[in-house]
């Protein structure tokens, strides 16, 4: 069935209609239209009422999906794709640092949860080690850093 009859699919000239792009990428047509408004993807034109895209849009959408899974916001991604090559690398290096910080935060959270699983106190809030870990999540008010859990 061709895209003109409402079934989606590859259009003449190798273009993909929006339904085919959505099926191929798992990204909803509404998200594709939103990506278009942000300048992240560009339609090749229209076939009737449907947007059409060049096949390369599949790689672009895969980039968007991968970047989102890595923690990039759509605004960050838009800025990144518009950045000159030298600036692009600096921004990517900043994102690597951010990911490293997040990994360390997750390791600490994992250690807290691991402690909670083996803690012998009647409740977690009775446990000084667990409470100290919770205080680490708050801005320092006392001027003294709370003890850190190993992790």
TrEMBL record:
<protein>
    <submittedName>
        <fullName>MerR family transcriptional regulator</fullName>
    </submittedName>
</protein>
């Amino acid at each position: 069935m061709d895209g003109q009859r409402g079934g989606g699919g590859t259009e003449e000239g190798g273009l993909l209609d929006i339904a085919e792009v959505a099926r191929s990428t798992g990204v909803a047509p509404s998200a594709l239209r939103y990506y278009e408004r942000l300048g992240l993807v560009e339609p090749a034109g229209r076939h009737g009422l449907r947007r059409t895209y060049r096949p390369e849009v599949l790689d672009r959408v895969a980039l968007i999906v991968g970047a989102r899974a890595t923690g990039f916001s759509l605004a960050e991604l838009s800025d990144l794709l518009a950045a000159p090559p030298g600036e692009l690398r600096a921004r990517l290096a900043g994102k690597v640092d951010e990911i490293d910080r997040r990994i360390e935060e997750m390791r600490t959270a994992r250690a807290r949860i691991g402690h909670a699983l083996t803690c012998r106190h009647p409740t977690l809030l009775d446990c000084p080690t667990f409470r100290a870990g919770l205080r680490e999540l708050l801005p320092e008010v006392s001027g003294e850093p709370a003890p850190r859990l190993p992790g």
